[in-house]
Amino acid sequence: QKxxxxxxxxxxxxxxxxxxxxxxxxERQSLLKERLVELKDLWDELIAETDKRHTRLMExxxxxxxYADAAEAEAWMGEQELHMMSEEKAKDxxxxxxxxxxxxxxxxxxxxxxxxxxxxxxxxxxxxxGEHPESERITLRQAQVDKLYAGLKDLAEERxxxxxxxxxxxxxxxxxxxxxxxxxxxxxxxxSHELGQDYEHVTMLRDKFRxxxxxxxxxxxxxxxxxxxxxxxxxxSGHPENASVAEWKDGLNEAWADLLELIDTRTQxxxxxxxxxxxxxxxxxxxxxxxxxxxALPSDLGRDLNTVQHLHRLHITSENDIQALSGQVNQVQDDxxxxxxxxxxxxxxxxxxxxxxxxxxxxxxxxxxxxxxxxLLDTVEKFRFFNMVRDLMLWMDGVNLQIDAHDSPRDVSSxxxxxxxxxxxxxxxxxxxxxxxxxxxxxxxxxxxxxYATDEIREKMAQLQEKRxxxxxxxxxxxxxxxxxxxxxxxGRDASVAExxxxxxxxxxxxxxxxxxxxxxESLIKRHEAFxxxxxxxxxxxxxxxxxxxxxxxxxQRRREEEERARRPPTPPPAEQVAQTEAESQAxxxxxxxxxxQTTLNQxxxxxxVHSDNDTSQQSLSQSLSVGKKSEPKRVCKPxxxxxxxxxxxxxxxxxxxxxxxSRLEPSATLPGRGGADSEPEIMxxxxxxxxxxxxxxxxxxxxxxxxxxxxxxxxxxGFYKDNxxxxxxxxxxxxxxxxxxxxxxxxxxxxxxxxxxxKLRLGDGKEYLFQAKDxxxxxxxxxxxxxxxxxxSKDSPLGPRPLSxxxxxxxxxxxxxxxxxxxxxxxKEKDREKRFSFFGKKK
Length: 844
Hints:
Blueprint: H1 2-24, H2 29-84, H3 93-129, H4 135-190, H5 199-236, H6 242-296, H7 305-342, H8 346-405, H9 412-431, H10 433-448, H11 454-510, H12 518-546, H13 550-567, H14 575-600, E1 606-607, E2 610-611, H15 616-627, H16 658-665, E3 684-696, E4 699-700, E5 707-714, E6 717-721, H17 724-729, E7 739-740, E8 745-748, E9 758-762, E10 768-772, H18 776-789, E11 821-824, E12 830-833
Antiparallel strand pairs: 1-2, 3-4, 3-5, 3-10, 5-6, 6-7, 8-9, 9-10, 11-12
Helix pairs in contact: 1-2, 2-3, 2-4, 3-4, 4-5, 4-6, 5-6, 6-7, 6-8, 7-8, 8-10, 8-11, 9-11, 10-11, 11-12, 11-15, 14-15, 15-16
Domain PH: 681-791
Pfam families: PH_9, Spectrin
InterPro entries: PH-like_dom_sf (IPR011993), PH_9 (IPR041681), PH_dom-spectrin-type (IPR001605), PH_domain (IPR001849), Spectrin/alpha-actinin (IPR018159), Spectrin_repeat (IPR002017)
């Protein structure tokens, strides 16, 4: 082919020169073309034949290469077949494992050679598909190679099975030999005859043998079952050595059954020895515990109920512990009865002696516990009765403090609250009646049962009855006193209302205008007639004011009794009795004055729970208690209607002198002003619900929600805290600065209807707060305290006029009622007079 390729340029040159010559020589043109065509055909035929020969040579080369590879594969597989047909047998497990591993290596090589077989098959298939001239021979040779490889694999699998069976047989033999040796070692321990010298020794032997038997049974049974399973598998699989396998299995099972029988026999022997030694040990321990419990019983009975109850609980616990011993005692008795049937002679006598000692000690302990329990129960009942008496005594002390600690009423509403609280105390006393009855019944029951502390119980019962009688009497005396105070306060309120009405009507009465024509005169007459009708309607109220209060009636009764005693001939009593009587009288008078003075002094009288503009009711009640004891009241008739010049007269109800009447309305010269510079600053604190309405003038607060704050009023400032602990630490609520009460106004929030007991605080800078108290009394107390804390001279301070509450049912006093008014006489001249009209005459 290379030579032909070398002649290709020459052939091409001949074709080119022939074509050139044919174009030059026209005569020989046809001949040249024929020769060129012939030359081209011959050259193409030569190239085609050359290609065919090259193809035949390549096919022959591929066929010879296939034959060579097939021969090499047959030779390798023949060599491996010799290894597979070996009849060598392993003598032990180790050699069997070596042979198995070697065979696994051969099988892996055979698997790896499968790639070569696959390549031969692919090569033969390509040649056959390409219609190779030797396709039949190639196919036959490939079939021989495949058959030889398949036979080799079958031999390898068969040899692997034989090697595995031999390996399992050697493994079974090793397991059987190891297990038989282990059983022989265990039989030595199970065949021991040692039974122990005492309880501790036999317990140790029993525990150790139990562990030995448990381990032997668990481990041995697992191993025997495993060996039997291997043997059964070999027999079922048809192993050539089935007879040997069955013989090994029977020998192993027989040895295992003998070992289990030895273990059971040894266990029974140790159990019998353990029961005998345990009985003696249990009897000794129970006897020691019984003696210990009996010695541990205390003799102390305690000094109070808690101690006795604690001792009783301890005794109950001790009895429970002792009852726990009853099971042990019964167990000792049952064991003794059972063992006496199994033993005789000296051992039986020892068992009986131990049982008798335990029974005697147990009966003695039970008797001591019962005696101690009864004594503690009696002591518990005694102290329980004493505690009931003490609780009732303390409760009566608390009631006594409540009776003494009630706030003195400042007005009619507060007096009603005080009386209601006092009535609540009575309800509590009635509720406690069952407790007193139960206590008395308990004391009588203890006395009837011949309690060892009968004398003390009788003494406590007598003290309880005496104190109960005293507290009932004190409550009734305080109730009578509060009724008297209520009557006095009601009179002061009604008098203040009446005076306010008179002051409001005075401008109409004093009017000097008589009219300039008929219409004006008729109008004035109609207005005066309306006033007379109104005055007639007030007549009944003035009549009620003329009635004596309970205090005045008692005072008159006391003076009549003193006058009667003074008219009697004197009978000198013993000196001691005189001194005692005078001391009691002075103490009674002092207590009455103090109680009633505190009712009215240093407090501004309020009408229906809200402060009024004057303090006349307060001062009148204050002086009525002192003036009423010095002089007999005088009756002065009240005029039917006011007249000119009546401002200098006093209008008093029957039984009241001018001094008493005027003292009800005029401020006492000895009392300090509420807003004086020398007065102590009001201090008050407590929990209120706060809401800020205004931040400044005409500017509402951004957040208008209610929050619970702890308020502290001190030195003209109101501070807010989270709770009382924050007060001590000085941490204010959200860091707010205390507000200054200068120019502050505090009043009831009548225009706020969503909540009850709400009052309003408006500051000078325009800020406005709402506060909610828990009840009306607390609200009034806060209003009074805040108003008292406003600095003197500030706007709307307590010294200035304060508006009347809407709760007032009478017309308020005119703001100009205390100023000079201009009046005209008949000549038309102006006359300045001081307006002094009042229901009571002023003190000169």
